[in-house]
Amino acid sequence: MGLASLALVTGCGPTQAADHESDVGKPPSADIGKARDDLKKLAVKGRAPKTGFEREKFGPAWADVDRNGCDTRNDILKRDLREETFKKGTHDCIVLTGILDDPYSGKTIKFTRGQDTSMAVQIDHLIPLSDAWQKGAQQWSKDKRKEFANDPLNLLAVDGPLNNQKSDADAATWLPPRKAYRCAYIARQVKVKTKYALWVTAAEKAAMDGVLSSC
């Protein structure tokens, strides 16, 4: 799932294992350079009001937008976990167990599907939906918002409590506690904002630039 990999855009693929390893540390210098260049091109504006934001405006949670028979949450679990097991009869769609090498904390987390255990691993929108809503997504069509909410480029399996801590914060107010991952995190956020023409606030841009300058 490395920044240099097209698998981020297309979802699961034969490069899954290599991608996972490359995303653990810092991204290649070429990706950092591109992120810096792309960041300079992003529009800088204030936040639009959050008025009218609802999760449903981005479509049903975890739709099967790529029509591979699996919902997006299970696609991302399958991509980001290792040693997965699957529910029988689901064509390897429903992940039952697996191990996450959490990029945000550096911890190893055992995932077990269940009412009381599933949320130990959550799927983070690197650019939160409400943040996107306040920085351009209000003007999108329903189909584009649904695409954004399920785009593998903007999704990452992470430690559940940290995802809750992040909530809808942007880079100005929240960064992964694991400093070794911040370069990859910001570079990927810039890539998402560039792809969808979302703007940044001045504080957000300064925070992003500060991280990229340290890479």
Strand content: 5-15%
Mean pLDDT: 89
Query: Low-confidence parts, pLDDT < 50 over ≥5 residues?
Result: 1-24
DSSP summary: helix tally: 9
Query: What is the succession of H and E elements?
Result: HHHHEEEEHHEHHH
End-to-end gap: 19 Å
Radius of gyration: 17 Å
The biggest beta sheet reads: 3 strands, antiparallel
Give the structural class: alpha+beta
Number of strands: 5
- Helix-residue proportion: 25-40%
Tell the overall outline: globular
Major sheet: order of its strands? 1-2-3
Organism: Nonomuraea recticatena
Protein name: GmrSD restriction endonucleases C-terminal domain-containing protein
Pfam family, one: GmrSD_C
Region (Disordered): 13-33
Word description of this protein:
The protein has nine helices and five strands, in the order ααααββββααβααα. With 215 residues, it is of the alpha+beta class. Mean pLDDT is 89; it is low at 1-24. It starts with 6 loop residues before the first helix and ends with a helix. Residues 71-208 form the GmrSD restriction endonucleases C-terminal domain. InterPro entries: GmrSD_C.
